[in-house]
Amino acid sequence: MIRVLVVDDNRLIRETVGELLDAEPDVQVVGRCADGDEVLDAVRAAQPDVVLMDLSMPRMGGVEATELLRAHAPQVRVVVLTASVDRKQLAAARRAGAVAEVSKNADPVAVIDAVRTAGGPDVPDRTPA
Length: 129
Prior knowledge:
Distance between the termini: 12 Å
CATH class: Alpha Beta
Radius of gyration: 13 Å
Helix content: 40-55%
Strand order of the largest sheet: 2-1-3-4-5
Structural class: alpha/beta
Order of helices and strands: EHEHEHEHEH
Number of helices: 5
Strand content: 15-25%
Number of domains: 1
Number of strands: 5
């Protein structure tokens, strides 16, 4: 089971993407955050395998939140979910530690595939016995 935290300042996207992922049998959404300031506490509480991270958010953006997350929880993989096609911003997210990016305009299957790829086969099974 791949545990996912969805981080986006747009509530509709946060909820819709969360529902999309939760409908998958091998994915569990363990939390949702509205901005980067909330990420570290949410990761500590929910222990996700993957964080699906928006880049453009108020208070703390996705690049800074990814840097902070990678410093405090390096086992968590970050997948950028963005409407931006700004190559510099995407490159900054990769340098910060993001393992992949997917467009908000992508087919929903692409979002699911990105989470599954980031979650990978070495994600521990935390399914209750």
